[in-house]
Amino acid sequence: MVLFFSSTAHDPAVTIYMGRDKVENEDLIKYAWPGDIWFHVDKLSSAHVYLRLPESIPSWESIPEPLLVDCAQLVKANSIEGNKRNDLTIIYTPADNLKAIQKTGDMAVGQVSFHNDKRVKRVHIAKRENVIVNRLNKTKVERTVDHEATTKYSSVREMEEDFM
């Protein structure tokens, strides 16, 4: 099952999604679109949260700060240890920078490494913002997704017509 959220921190609203558990995270890593942006709490266990960039945001390096904060707050809220801490670093990178498919024997399920560490950015979260987390949780929808089928879509708009 995949959890979908809608962020209104950007106009038009954008889709954020995450896996239900570490096994689902493996599928999300494998089938994420190259332009999807992956978020995770740095150095702690957390959900893998993805932002599906809309056509109105030209690149992952130009994600508006309010949208970055939405994604980072969702990651923090879905980290058992990270949710209890203040002053967290959230890392993010394009999904095509994730190097999970070539797992090494010492990598756990859901663990990733990167093709290029220079393509990993960081955002600081001072504390949990319940207003943001609650707003996102009100939009949460859980769906079964045929990951292989979603790879056929060429745009977010096209996929959302079928799934949203």
Structure, explained:
This protein is of the alpha+beta class and 164 residues long. 26% of the residues lie in helices and 22% in strands. It has helices at residues 22-31, 65-77, 130-137, 147-150, 156-163, and strands at 2-7, 14-19, 37-41, 49-52, 88-94, 121-125, 141-143. A 7-stranded antiparallel beta sheet has the order 6-5-3-4-2-1-7. A hairpin with a 7-residue loop joins strand 3 and strand 4 (49-52). The radius of gyration is 15 Å and the shape is globular. The two termini are 15 Å apart. The mean pLDDT is 85.
Report the major sheet. Answer: 7 strands, antiparallel
Terminal CA distance: 15 Å
Tally the beta strands. 7
Percent in strands: 15-25%
* Helical content (DSSP H or I, runs of 4+): 25-40%
- What's the SSE pattern? EEHEEHEEHEHH
- Alpha-beta classification: alpha+beta
Summed up, the helix count is: 5
Q: Give the overall pLDDT as a whole number.
A: 85
Which parts are unreliable, with pLDDT below 50 for 5 consecutive residues or more?
none
Shape: globular
